[in-house]
Amino acid sequence: MQFRIDAQDGAARAATIQTAHSVIQTPVFMPVGTVGAVKALDALDLQNHLSPQIILGNTYHLYLRPGDEIVKAMGGLHGFTRFPKSFLTDSGGFQAFSLSDNVKIEEDGITFRSHIDGSKHHFTPQKVLDIQYNLGSDIMMILDDLVALPATRERIRESIERTTRWAQRSIDYHRRKQMEGIGVDQNIFAIIQGGTDKEFRKISATELCALDFDGFAIGGLSVGEANREMYDTVEWTTPFMPTDKPRYLMGVGTPEDLVENVERGVDMFDCVMPTRNARNGTLFTSFGKVTIKAARYATDEEPIDPECGCIVCRTYSRAYLRHLFRAKELTYFRLATIHNLYYYLDLMRQMREAILEGKFAEFKRKFYRKRDNG
Amino acid sequence: MQFRIDAQDGAARAATIQTAHSVIQTPVFMPVGTVGAVKALDALDLQNHLSPQIILGNTYHLYLRPGDEIVKAMGGLHGFTRFPKSFLTDSGGFQAFSLSDNVKIEEDGITFRSHIDGSKHHFTPQKVLDIQYNLGSDIMMILDDLVALPATRERIRESIERTTRWAQRSIDYHRRKQMEGIGVDQNIFAIIQGGTDKEFRKISATELCALDFDGFAIGGLSVGEANREMYDTVEWTTPFMPTDKPRYLMGVGTPEDLVENVERGVDMFDCVMPTRNARNGTLFTSFGKVTIKAARYATDEEPIDPECGCIVCRTYSRAYLRHLFRAKELTYFRLATIHNLYYYLDLMRQMREAILEGKFAEFKRKFYRKRDNG
């Protein structure tokens, strides 16, 4: 993976990442394709209507169904899904932790039962990399030791220390595997933990960033803390991260979160928000959120966002989308998803443009002003 | 509406229908777009991947939600849905009869309660035309008096007689409205009833076909009778129908049904089968049906039908579609729907081609031979 900073404006960065499958211009938002499809869309929708350079796959889901061996047999995620650009896969740890029953975390790894059929499984730092080798993702995330909050400081400290030990095992395993010719084109990111605690974040960042990873993520945020706490934690943590490697803020967030964290030096984001909110009837626009079921849209001939260039806004009225949503038509979910993802991806492009022109502060002012007037 | 027979091969006809919105080449299959969208697809999918010249809308559904006045305010079905070709709308009677509670049929019309909110409504032959004027469909179906089977011969006879009386009221009302400048570009079809009873079919066909309708439908079939009974009834009925107007067999059917009834002189069909079966995991191919969830497709790299030219078969494997189906991904429903409709529309094109070449019998032999070998 090649990484190059194209421009910097304050702490905000515009960079270019080159993987084996695509050139990724940052700041970048990665649509979530949990089981090998961005919900309601297919690979042609992505290519024709959205042009993302990278999307996410969830290791936990793909491991359980269809199974990573099957994905491997079908040519990895790229061959299986026909999405030819980059994939990032998470470690599966978060879903094992949050979706499964009877989760047990030990020094060796995580034991859990499938939410699909109750079958018992065991994830270790090495195992989740083996799965991701089969998936063939361009960026692999390592297993980390997650903590259910609230937790004692001892438990949080233990989790950070274990995460570092697992990170060491992961990077050692990966570099050894690459020597054997496995995962040669695959990159590996570590995940900084520590909640909103400055000391823990500093320890976690310092320890992990001393290791030879291809990039670093900030995990454990956007879990219910105040926005300000999230922004402060990111601002505190990024100085401990290398400038010459990608920075990925996991599971974030709202359009405002993206703007605030790009300003603080984050390069990569993912979140289910644009896709999930689309399905629930909340559409993102340059002037704020639209609740499409509202009665005032019943005969509204305007597109969702008159300033949006997406295929949905160029074709359909709010009235038609409202009708499809109320009738629970399958058609609705795809159209709303295309619009929301277009909005997110376009927002990232606008931010990159502003950084390249050294006008991020101006961009940010306009971004908020429009929403206030919306 | 203009209607021209392009070729005839035995009883099978290839014709051209010109409406205000499209040129329809027959035999034609009309995808069902119940509430103003073919389920899982949008108008651009239809245009880009399927190119139907006419689709169906359901008057009952559109009347209840969003309401025909709203559709009218949005430019009718064409403006609202952005599908620019022809629409055929049914009378709403069948759904009022089958989906609603407390249905009451009297000489005046049908009283029923909405399946959505229980509200009370009354459909008369005139009222369902008023609704269809608002919808702006190219072909409107008249209200008929439906009978729940089993029924006495008296009740069936009464329904046929009432259907004729309602047809007279419908055509009188429509021609008067057209004189007033309403529905000028809209066409009106009557519906021949009578179950599988030859005498009743003859009476119904003779009485209705004496009236000045733009086309005639055969209704009340594909409701559980044996295939042979359906085919025989159509074969018996078509000779009582004018040769210079379109013949529409409502709610039919399987690919085999289409072939058999085209052979017997039917021009137009509609059915939820390709779309509903797609969603349920049954895919149509030139060699018969595919149950996509079957374990044998788990690592099958072939497209659904190697002979199919649809965008789905040109892009995705059976393995990927099976996975999406098992994971209940929204993406699946659209891809499967596109494939099944493509198969249906392509089958009609093949039949038209065969009729134009005077080779329908040969086409039919090959059609069945492939399925036997499948």
Secondary structure topology:
The structure is a homodimer of 374-residue chains.
Chain A: E1 2-9, E2 12-18, E3 23-25, E4 28-30, H1 43-50, E5 54-57, H2 59-64, H3 68-73, H4 76-81, E6 86-89, H5 93-99, E7 101-105, E8 110-113, E9 120-123, H6 125-135, E10 139-141, H7 153-179, E11 187-192, H8 198-209, E12 215-218, H9 227-237, E13 247-249, H10 255-263, E14 268-270, H11 273-280, E15 282-285, E16 288-291, H12 318-326, H13 330-356, H14 360-373
Parallel strand pairs in A: 4-14, 5-6, 6-10, 10-11, 11-12, 12-13, 13-14
Antiparallel strand pairs in A: 1-2, 2-3, 7-8, 8-9, 15-16
Describe the structure.
Chains A, B: The active site is at residues 90, 270. The structure is a homodimer of 374-residue chains. By secondary structure, chain A is an alpha/beta fold. Chain A is 43% helix and 18% strand. In chain A, strands 4-14-13-12-11-10-6-5 form an eight-stranded parallel sheet. In chain A, helix 13 (330-356) packs antiparallel against helix 14 (360-373). The longest helix of chain A is centred in the middle third of the chain and has 27 residues, at 153-179. The first copy, chain A, is globular. The model of chain A has no long low-confidence stretch (mean pLDDT 96). The A-B interface holds A 35-44, 61, 65-66, 70, 73-74, 80-82, 298-299, 301, 311, 315-317, 319-320, 322-324, 326-327, 329-331, 333-335 and B 35-44, 61, 65-66, 70, 73-74, 80-82, 298-299, 301, 311, 315-317, 319-320, 322-324, 326-327, 329-331, 333-335.
